[in-house]
């Protein structure tokens, strides 16, 4: 029960940090996906 209470008390801070980290992670994944898509388009154009 003590561990559960500790998890709840730190949950607010953890959720805020998780949301910030998750946002940065999604932004990085989106940037990587866009960059790889651009690279694939350039490769397709140059190869054809």
UniProtKB/TrEMBL annotation:
Alphabetized Pfam families for the sequence: COX4_pro_2
SUPFAM superfamilies from the UniProt entry: Bacterial aa3 type cytochrome c oxidase subunit IV
UniProt KW Zinc keyword: no
Transmembrane segments: 28-46
Keywords: Membrane, Transmembrane, Transmembrane helix
UniProt xrefs under InterPro entries: Cyt-C_aa3_sf, Cyt_c_oxidase_su4_bac-aa3
Cytochrome c oxidase subunit IV bacterial aa3 type domain ranges (all copies): 7-47
Protein name per its UniProtKB record: Aa3-type cytochrome c oxidase subunit IV
UniProt source species: Paroceanicella profunda
